[in-house]
Amino acid sequence: MEVKDIKETSLSLNPVISQMGIYDHEQILFCNDNATGLKAIIAIHNTVLGPSLGGTRFWNYNNEMEALTDVLRLSRGMTYKSSAAGINLGGGKAVIMGDPKKLKNEALLRRFGKFVNSLGGKYITAEDVAMSSRDMEMIKMETDYVSGLPVTMGGSGDPSPVTAYGVHVSMKASAKEAFGSDNLSGKKVLVQGAGNVGLHLIEHITKEGAKVYVYDITEERVKLAVDKYKAEYVSADKMFDLDIDIYAPCALGATVNDDTLSRLKCSVICGAANNQLADEKKHGELVKSKGILYAPDFVVNAGGVINVYYELEGYNRERALSHAEKIYDTTWNIIQTAKTQNIPTYAAANYIAEQRIASIAKINAVM
Ligand code: NAD
């Protein structure tokens, strides 16, 4: 058999490397340990701007391909988020496969920490779904490449106040474009999800005089928003039919979809949730054609990654907040780029993130 044939055969039989090629992922580490039951994948998408950083998600995937697809998608998302936020981090992510309730224990987490350590700092982990700051402490026993540690361990603690601050300033920049002023006083805002970020956001915008409508599946979170900030409760079946100015998704992804877009009466969508557009291309274009200004989620919610970035440098909340404040300008620049190029805002955000990586790659090539 000729060499060419071997290459072609191995590529067609190897869906992993083919998948890595689609979005130009740099490296994947597959981790297995029979003793602890650990099965994990660490994906490094891009390290042009700096070491890759992204949380570890513990999830009971249906199969390994589903886990691989998730980690490839999420790690790429981190590259774009950090690039647009102007921080010197690349994109990475890890997934641990299995039921966290059954599998998660000290030995498994420390074994995972050893795998993270083996990458020598090319990947820095943090919290994500089903991982707590206590779990980060376990991982930290085996590696220094961990961020998002509790304040008691010298870490940055809960990132949600910084994330909420970033959402607030992004909402102001969006309002400036949509309404001619960045003052949110009198604006009617629907906040879906009064969790850690949502409640801080409600505090910021009600202080500025916005009228907040709130929905959360957890009754006590609604009660907090209503009692503390005079928000008005709205039921799940009515919320997308309200007459509002701004929709702030702060709970789940994919809430900007065919159904909600046929009902939503708002001028701006700006919130903390990840992956708000059910189908990025389709719904990103649909919001534009409907005249709704969509502030791209990964730009809006970058306060979380900004917060852990400053932990790597010796944490200082003032510096993290001051950097998060720049999300105002980033949002504004993206909106203006989208307008000038007549493209959807999500595409403008991707373009700006890609431009920064391309320009720094050129500098790296010189050194
Ligand atoms: P959280 O878990 O504290 O809050 C989520 C809230 O949403 C909870 O109160 C929950 O009851 C509610 N919720 C769940 N399902 C719902 C539904 N179907 N309808 C309405 N409410 C529902 O999470 P968080 O830290 O506030 O994060 C909110 C969102 O922002 C998430 O999508 C998260 O991925 C994203 N995000 C958070 C940060 C951060 O710093 N915490 C950073 C970046 C992105």
Which CATH class of the largest domain applies here?
Alpha Beta
Radius of gyration over C-alpha positions, nearest whole angstrom: 21 Å
Q: Which ligands accompany this protein?
A: nicotinamide-adenine-dinucleotide
Structural class: alpha/beta
Which spans have pLDDT < 50 for at least 5 consecutive residues? 1-6
Give the integer mean of the pLDDT values: 95
**Distance N terminus to C terminus?**
42 Å
CATH architecture of the largest domain: 3-Layer(aba) Sandwich
Secondary-structure element order, N to C: HHEEEHEHHEHHEHEHEEHEHEHHHHH
**Overall number of domains:** 2
Q: How much beta, percentage-wise? A: 15-25%
Shape estimate: globular
Q: DSSP helix count?
A: 16
Strand sequence of the main sheet, in spatial order? 8-7-6-9-10-11
Helix percentage? 40-55%
Largest sheet: 6 strands, parallel
Topology:
Layout: H1 3-13, H2 15-22, E1 27-33, E2 38-46, E3 52-59, H3 64-84, E4 90-97, H4 100-103, H5 106-118, E5 123-127, H6 133-140, H7 160-179, E6 188-192, H8 196-207, E7 211-215, H9 219-229, E8 232-233, E9 246-249, H10 258-263, E10 268-269, H11 280-289, E11 293-294, H12 297-300, H13 303-312, H14 317-324, H15 327-341, H16 345-366
Parallel strand pairs: 3-4, 3-5, 6-7, 6-9, 7-8, 9-10, 10-11
Antiparallel strand pairs: 1-2, 2-4
The chain binds nicotinamide-adenine-dinucleotide.
